[in-house]
Amino acid sequence: MRQQQTAVSANMHFSWLIMLLMSSVTFVGILSELMPSGVLPQMMADLNISEVQGGNLVGYYAIASAVFAIPLVSLTMQFNRKILLLVLLVGFAVSNIAAALLLNYTVIIFLRIIGGICAGVMWPMIAAYGMRLVHEDYHGKAIAVIMAGNTLGISLGMPLMTFIGNEFGWRAGFIALGVVILAIALISLFVLPPTPGEKLTQSSSPFALLKIPAVLIVLLLTLLGVGAHYGVYVYITSLVNEIELTGGTESALLLFGAGSLVSVLLAIKYTDVYLRLLTIAMFALLIISMAIFLLFGRITGIAHFAFFLWGLSFGPLVTLFQAAISKQVESAKDVATSVQSSAFNLSIMLATSGAGLLLGAYSPIALTYMAIALAVPGMLISFFARKTLG
């Protein structure tokens, strides 16, 4: 009874402590996924593996996350949200720490798949969990704060973890991340309120959700938006080298991160009220930034500003689409966000493959054409989707 009262009282207000704690979960979640990227040369040398095998350390993680998201979220819907999150955090920690202590590449790949499975459940459930703890008027704000950890992980966490890996070895970086995750789990044990799960019914199944036109519109926007962004972002180093940006990749990522942080703050404040306008602006800023790369990419200062604009567009990407999908259903938001999360990961894989083919045939600047070609219909659909986006 006391636990139920705690959960109910949490619904009465917006708790920054709880939301920031949940944001720390998405922070370590994205670091757990991308960690090998920052220390890949050291891992390749230490494990005696090829570049392709090194890439699989991230690729298999993403595939596991995409494949297992919908079935496992559906399977765990009846579990208490707090207990489920604690189990997932322990899974993240063990997969990272154990990988750091082992020498066998095959076993490490298996551990990365375990981490990917945990991520497949965590990403959709954490947003739905947060929404249950606040009034419906603050659902967008809750998602924005929680998913801000994702942006901070990319813009601030990855450089920090890469520094630790370069200074003390990749194994130290993995262990440090695992210890931080265990600390977050311990704090969550005492701070997060428990909330019961939901029953999965025929009307709330993934297949039933895919029959809702508004859900399909959000999934289409996810494919277009994520594809446009990640098709270029994955090969950002190639783009920087192509336009000969002063300051190199470090300068580009710094400006990109600064823009992302600004837009995350805006998303926290305005997502609940201006979801549709923010989505239109996200696509529009992406188009403008890519056009600047095409027309003025070699001009110092202007090109740097384009990376800042691109970061403005990129920052609220996860927030906007998860907020949009959650608006389309009254219950089973975990399932709805799992469908959107799977579409998100699928989009990344498709964008990476498509961009790779373009790079094989053309110069890196061709990626900006691909981004624009995807973003223009995304902006138009967002403009006319008044009923879906509000």
Automatic annotation (TrEMBL):
Residues 17-390 form the Major facilitator superfamily (MFS) profile domain. It comes from the Bacteria. SUPFAM superfamilies: MFS general substrate transporter (SSF103473). The keyword Cell membrane applies. Keywords: Cell membrane, Membrane, Transmembrane, Transmembrane helix. PANTHER family: CHLORAMPHENICOL EFFLUX PUMP RV0191, PURINE EFFLUX PUMP PBUE. This is MFS transporter. It comes from Pontibacter populi.
